[in-house]
Specification:
Length: 418
């Protein structure tokens, strides 16, 4: 027996309706905000992520699925969606089209992390990216979009929005110096990762999960106190728009995000119902990524939500999710009724209804049992007499009543009661 690889999961037919509900909501809300779908490859040249996501991040240094293909090229299974979208935007010359450029994606992503509840090695994201707009309204639209998506999925009441600004490369340089001064006397007591982050990117130290380091990071200087005038005005603008739109948030200076490309606004939606992996959606502005990848400077903002975490949250909150059921099971009691049931099922399907009929020569009792398992709304029973009369005995499985319905009126009958 070959087992599923560690950190991966099957999405089984019995629970796929939750995936569909989330994906349908993602598409419908994207549509309302004017975001169109983009699909990019599952793997990219490794350099895209090391340059884009940042080579001091855990994602790039520890978690990437990187391998040489048969042509000797280093390729990587995408650990996230933003870098691939940026590459596609540049490579396809999309800056020449309508701006702002707005896209969404539903993807699988891969990170070699230690698996636990809500943390997988293959996981799925719904993400959105908006390019070309640098003002606070773009940040506010991305956040409002994320907020509406979560509310329409049904988890709105259980999530909290945290926002922060991590400034621009100019004000961040001054902050990094302050951070280094703060951490320098404690370096000996901090973990080896933090000691190397100290030289390469001290802000990463704020994200350290080691208890020994957290006792220092919790007292570290805050980026918010170092924002330059432009970054401060921008952040004030985002907060004002969110407030006016009735979107509640808290400013949380501890949010730095785990990827290097961010600047200015960063945000996360978290839920206490999720345990340790409490972030269900994260995003922010990233004004330098596109130029870093070779495009002309293009401001950008976006977010991604983890689908598996959303499903965990739906389950934890016992949110009712509409499951699709079979409209009608056509039950033939003898061989000629079975044939008629087959043909009637085809007719009803042409009329847009979902139907099933017996494919396994089952007894009447076994067919009823199967129809029940399918959650069929109606069971249309056909026997010798019904065939002669041109009618079916239609049982309403919700209230156990039944009625004689002519074959040619069956579709109408079911549609009228569904
Ligand atoms: P991220 O915070 O790394 O951001 O991931 C976004 C979401 O994906 C997380 O909040 C979480 O729900 C889910 N997620 C991440 N890693 C895992 C995992 N190992 N297992 C299960 N779920 C996971 C990004 O990926 C950015 N690209 C978001 C973005 C888009 N920023 C701007 N545009």
């Amino acid at each position: 027996m070959i087992n599923i690889p560690k950190g991966t999961k099957d999405a089984l037919p019995s629970e796929i309706y939750k995936w569909h509900a989330i994906e349908d909501t993602a598409k419908a809300v994207s549509d309302r905000y004017g975001f169109r779908e983009i699909r990019t490859p599952v793997f990219e040249h490794t350099e895209l992520f090391s340059r884009g996501v940042g080579d001091t991040t855990d994602v790039v240094t520890k978690e990437m699925y990187t391998f040489l293909d048969k042509g000797g090229r280093s390729v990587t299974l995408r650990p996230e969606g933003t870098a691939g979208v940026a590459r596609a935007f540049i490579e396809n010359g999309l800056a020449g089209g309508a701006m702002p450029f707005k896209v969404y994606y539903l993807i699988s992503a891969f990170r070699y992390e230690r698996p636990q509840a809500g943390r997988l090695r293959e996981f799925h994201q719904f993400g959105a990216e908006l390019y070309g707009a640098e003002g606070p309204s773009a940040d506010a639209e991305a956040i409002a979009f994320a907020d509406r998506f979560l509310r329409e999925v049904g988890v709105g009441k259980a999530v909290r929005l945290h926002i922060n600004s991590i400034g621009c490369p100019i004000c961040r340089a001054e902050y990094q110096t302050a951070l280094k001064e703060f951490f320098r006397p404690h370096l000996d007591e901090m973990c080896p990762d933090c000691r190397s982050r100290f030289d390469k990117n001290p802000m990463r130290m704020l994200d350290c999960k080691e208890e020994g380091c957290k006792k220092f990071t919790s007292h570290a200087p805050r980026m918010l106190d170092y924002l330059c005038e432009d970054c401060r005005t921008h952040f004030e603008g985002v907060k004002a728009l969110l407030t006016r739109a009735g979107i509640s948030f808290e400013v949380d200076p501890s949010i730095v995000r785990g990827l290097d490309y961010y600047s200015r606004t960063v945000f996360e939606f978290t839920s206490d119902a999720l345990g340790a992996q409490s972030t269900v959606l994260g995003g922010g502005r990233y004004d330098t990524l596109l130029s870093q990848l070779g495009a002309k400077p293009t401001p950008a903002v976006g977010f991604a939500a983890g689908i598996e975490r959303l499903i965990l949250l739906l389950d934890a909150l016992a949110v009712p999710v509409q499951e699709k059921h079979v409209d009608c099971y056509l039950l033939g009691m003898d061989p000629s009724s079975r044939e008629k049931a087959f043909l009637l099922a085809e007719e009803l399907r042409s009329g847009g209804l979902s139907c099933e009929t017996d494919l396994m020569d089952r007894s009447v009792k076994a067919q009823f049992k199967y129809a029940d398992k399918l959650g069929a709304r109606f069971v249309a029973v056909l026997g010798e007499q019904e065939l002669q009369e041109g009618c079916a005995e239609v049982k309403d499985m919700q209230n156990s009543t039944s009625e004689r319905v002519r074959f040619d009126g069956l579709a109408q009958y079911i549609k009228g009661r569904n």
